[in-house]
Amino acid sequence: MKFKSRKDIPFKLFTIISISALIALETYTFLTDKYSFGITDIVILLIIPILLWIYFGTYYKLTASNLEYTSGPMKGSIPVTKIKEIMVGKTMLSGLKPATAKKGLIIKYDIYNEIYITPKAKDFFIKRILEINPDIKITPYDF
C-alpha cells in the first residue's frame, strides 16, 4: 500500500521560493547583454528538477515484509520485522529524513538506526504496519 507524504507550509514555501528565485536568476542573466551559458546555469537547471522530484516524489510503501521509502533520488527499504518502535508526533533534527513536514514518525529499527517519515494518513499507516508486525512499540510524543 502506498502512502503519500504530508507537506507542511514551510516546506511548500521553501520549494516555491527556491524554484522562483532560481528561475528569476536564470531569466535575469539570460536577458542581460553579457549572457553566456556556463557551469552555474547547468547547476541551477539541475537543482530545479531535483526540488520538484523531492516535492512530488516523496512517498512510502508498505509491502507484506518491507517499508519502502522514496524521496526524490533517495530510496531505501527496511524490513518491517526489524522495526522496534515508532515515535509519533516528533520531528527528528538529524539523520535519514525522507520527509516533507514536521511532527511525523520516527521509526527505530535494528539496534541504533532511525528514519523520519511523514505519511499523510499517519494513523492508518500505523494501523497497517501493526497488522504486519504487532510487536512494534508505539510511543506518542507529547511535548
UniProtKB/TrEMBL annotation:
Instruction: Tell me the domain of life.
Output: Bacteria
The segment(s) forming the Uncharacterized protein YyaB-like PH domain are 58-133
Gene Ontology biological-process annotations: bacteriocin immunity
Q: What keywords would UniProt list here?
A: Membrane, Transmembrane, Transmembrane helix
Transmembrane domains' residue ranges:
12-31, 37-56
Q: InterPro entries in the record, alphabetically?
A: PH_YyaB-like (IPR009589)
Keyword presence, Membrane: yes
Protein name per its UniProtKB record: PH (Pleckstrin Homology) domain-containing protein
Species of origin: Mesonia algae
